[in-house]
Amino acid sequence: MKRGRPKGRSNDKRSFGPLGDLIRKHRLEKKLGLLEVAKACKCSVQFISNIEHGRAPLPWDKIDMLAAYLKVPAETLRSANLSIRSDFRSFVNPARGKKIVTSPSMMNGLADAASIMSATTRDQQLCDLINRYQSANPAMRKRFLKTAMRMLAN
């Protein structure tokens, strides 16, 4: 009796984030297996699988090797590699990124207190969303991203 997964390429269509989806799409278009990509990047098959499934970040030093092997612009991989978590963390922790301005004297574009309260409320909503995102499992993160994008569009 055979054990484990069957050999061959998976037909799994789940999304695991922009970087994993991008790498997997180009790998499957070129009919490459995980082993070929892993050898080209000088890392393990498990590591490439973890990157595709969103369980590990792509190290910056491996981006150029992977981009050259998959014939994808390196800038595309770099932009996909910027995790939404790091963007959200800089929003939550102002000392690490741009400061969130809420005082009336510092908000040049907003004229009255009502619009300041609106901005503060929106910031609080985004902070709540970020906290939920950070505690969510990978399957739920895509849904949180869509919600955040809708909030930012409003």
Mean pLDDT: 72
Report the β-strand fraction as a percent range: under 5%
Distance between the termini: 57 Å
Classification by helices and strands: mainly alpha
The low-confidence runs, each spanning 5 or more residues with pLDDT under 50, are 96-114
User: How many individual helices?
Assistant: 8
Q: What is the radius of gyration computed over CA atoms, rounded to a whole number of angstroms? A: 20 Å
Tell me, what's the shape? elongated
How many structural units, i.e. domains?
2
Q: Overview of this structure, please?
A:
- The structure is a single chain.
- With 154 residues, this protein is mostly helical.
- It folds into two domains: 18-81, lambda repressor-like DNA-binding domains (434 Repressor (Amino-terminal Domain), Orthogonal Bundle); 84-153.
- Helix content is 60%, strand content 0%.
- Helix 2 crosses helix 3, helix 6 crosses helix 7 (113-135) and helix 7 (113-135) runs antiparallel to helix 8.
- The longest helix has 23 residues, at 113-135.
What's this, in brief?
With 154 residues, the protein is an all-alpha fold. It has eight helices and no strands.
Structure characteristics:
single chain, 154 residues, 434 Repressor (Amino-terminal Domain)
Write the layout of secondary structure elements.
Elements: H1 18-29, H2 34-41, H3 45-52, H4 63-70, H5 74-81, H6 84-92, H7 113-135, H8 138-153
Helix pairs in contact: 2-3, 6-7, 7-8
